[in-house]
Amino acid sequence: MKSNISALQSARASYKPKLPKILMGPVAKVGLKLGKATKSIADQNEIQKLFTKTYGQPEVSFHAGKNPASLKKPIKVALVLSGGQAPGGHNVVAGLYDGLKKLNPKNILQGYLGGPSGLLENKYIEITDKLLKEYRNTGGFDIIGSGRTKLESREQFEAVARNLKNAGITALVVVGGDDSNTNAAVLAEYFKIQNTPIRVIGCPKTIDGDLKNDQIEISFGFDTATKVYAELAGNVGRDCLSAKKYWHFIKVMGRSASHIALEVALQVHPNVTLISEEVADQQWTLDQITEHVAKVVAERAAQKKNYGVVIIPEGLLEFIPEMKKLISELNDLLAHNPAFERMESAHDKISFVQQRLGADSKKAFQSLPPSIQIQLLADRDPHGNVQVAKIETEKLLIEAVELKLKAWKQQSMYHGKFSGQGHYFGYEGRCAAPSNFDSDYCYSLGFNASYLVASGLTGYLSSVRDLLKPADKWQAGGVPLTMMMNLERRHGKDKPVILKALVELKGKPFKAFAAQRKKWAIEDDYQSPGPIQFWGPVEVANAAPETLKLERGKK
Ligand code: FBP
């Protein structure tokens, strides 16, 4: 054990994550049930043409029954953690390892280092009991690290195939979000076409909560991360009630979808929560959003409440029509632009883009404070997109609301005091010690992945369902990756990708929020969810996310 281990970590080390009943019993009694042939969620003809070998596979589930002896054949499995960290990743590793060893103690798990680039560079370590001991039920991905390298070119696929074949690997498990699992689907298809006997299985990860659908109830990490943010936002609410002098503008992570913001709103009841999907649906401009927030500030000021909490989803800017257009023009303009990359001064960069933007985007760009302009011009991510985590939308909104209130004051429409404080809750939640829910779910996803691999399947996502029931009643199985795909226009080309789940404005979680937000705007109804509890009453220690409860009709 590490010498600097905390008392909590040492106590958590003895936690035994729960499993679906079928995975707890003897291997010989696990049968694989095949469902009906599947179709992709949209663009069926096109997706089928692109995935001739893996399209249409049936959904599968594990039930009591007999299994072929081949399930016990010794195998060597490769594992890669891909994209942003999410609480519970170490338990996926532990579940996968324990499942493999249960199937056959001779099975080997090899962890590739630093994300998908580890597969290209052939850098790996063997996962062992001794190593895992330090990581069970802990947050983070540090056991093997993660990364955002995208595997897309033929040369990359060839390198991965070569390295895995040379290492004698039978299957690759990819733990990732929608983009990484899209990569996994493409790789599975490539291996099949090339007659390379390597299977590919995915695990649904992302704190953003946007990898979900009828088959995948939730991505892992969302529960823990939102509990951390909700604790912090609840504390800020309490500070508001105590000091009565600040408006706190809190940006929460979630690159595109606003699931995190919505979950925090449902747990904490802030005065204002912006939901990007609603902004896009209503085609709100930045000025309309500002007015919406400023109105709540003014209404509360009229009741002598010069304080409040505003929750802002990280991806907001990209959902405001004029900003979306600007960002997409900037992405095209700055992608692989050596002249721009050579520039060092902010002034040169700003004038470079201003000379090249279309009239509307130039106007939108000029409406932003210089600090935000610079953030929009910062390095792109590996997909060529602006890194929204780096844009201080909370500061932008504080400034915009302040200006609006000043104008209203001059017209005697507002008589309060406004003092804004900006916060960003993001990295604080991504490596938190996993809640009991995530500890169990992740362990089950990993364990289940080992059975999918051993069953000879490829192009599947590990699925564990019925998550609001006690863990032993959870259903274990697999969903074909192509089933979740559709075509999306990316950088001028139609690409097959796993459909990203955005907040549904007709869905129960949003409706529950919309029904209460007027009340929350004016009343001080802040809830303090408090820190994650690992022990104690089950309704507290094992609580599932509010969003999941509402979606599954349990509230
Ligand atoms: P994944 O979808 O890869 O899990 O990552 C999500 C996320 O945490 C977003 O919420 C955030 O915008 C982004 O990662 C930040 O990325 P980085 O770690 O590269 O700063």
In short:
The chain is an alpha/beta fold.
Spatial gap, N to C terminus: 42 Å
The portion of residues forming beta strands comes to 15-25%
Low-confidence stretches at least 5 residues in length (pLDDT < 50)?
none
What is the overall silhouette?
Answer: globular
Major beta sheet, specifics?
Answer: 9 strands, mixed
Number of alpha- plus pi-helical segments:
23
State the secondary-structure class.
alpha/beta
Proportion in helices: 40-55%
The hetero compounds bound to this protein are: 1,6-di-O-phosphono-beta-D-fructofuranose
Average pLDDT number: 94
Q: Total number of β-strand segments?
A: 15
Whole-number radius of gyration? 24 Å
Strand order of the largest sheet: 1-2-13-12-7-6-3-4-5
Task: Provide keyphrases for this structure.
alpha/beta; 555 residues; 9-stranded mixed β-sheet; 23 helices; binds 1,6-di-O-phosphono-beta-D-fructofuranose; 4-stranded parallel β-sheet; 43% helix
